[in-house]
Design goal:
There is one protein chain. The protein is an alpha+beta fold. The protein is built from four helices and five strands. The chain has a five-stranded mixed beta sheet with strand order 2-1-5-3-4, covered by helices on one side. A hairpin with a 2-residue loop joins strand 3 and strand 4. It is elongated. The termini are far apart.
């Protein structure tokens, strides 16, 4: 009697923005760890097990011993390259100091009008509809 096989997709987003993806056929009852090992992601992306910060299925974190099901998309997560709290503090300090980029201002806001009034001519352009 043959064992039932399930199809699972493994995804890994490289830091360069490229997405590595492959489908593997596994016996029913396989774990995320077994799916990762069968995919060959370590060799294909030149990464090690320590480079993986976590795993998940369809964006929901799951442990490596979680059992995968037919059609699951197993995702491998990298460690963050920045501290989110530090980025938030920096943005808050910029807002407090009045350092705003034009792309963050909306035309309906008073700040947009003030920006246009205080910016020397030629530097700020207003699109007319």
């Amino acid at each position: 009697m043959s064992e039932q096989l399930i199809s699972v997709t493994i995804c890994y987003a490289r830091s360069s923005g490229e997405i590595w993806r492959t489908a593997v056929a596994l016996p029913a009852g396989s774990t995320i760890e077994q799916a990762i090992a069968a995919s060959g992601v370590y060799a294909a992306c030149a990464i090690e097990g320590t480079d993986i910060a976590g795993t998940g299925i369809f964006g929901i974190r799951k442990p490596a011993d979680h059992i995968v099901h037919e059609g699951d998309r197993v995702e491998l997560y990298r460690a963050l390259t920045f501290d989110p709290m530090e980025s938030r503090r920096r943005r808050a300090a910029h807002r407090k100091a009045g350092i705003l980029k034009r792309k963050h201002l909306k035309k309906s806001k008073v700040a947009w009008q003030e920006y246009l009034e205080t910016t020397p001519a030629g530097q700020a352009t207003s699109k007319s509809d």
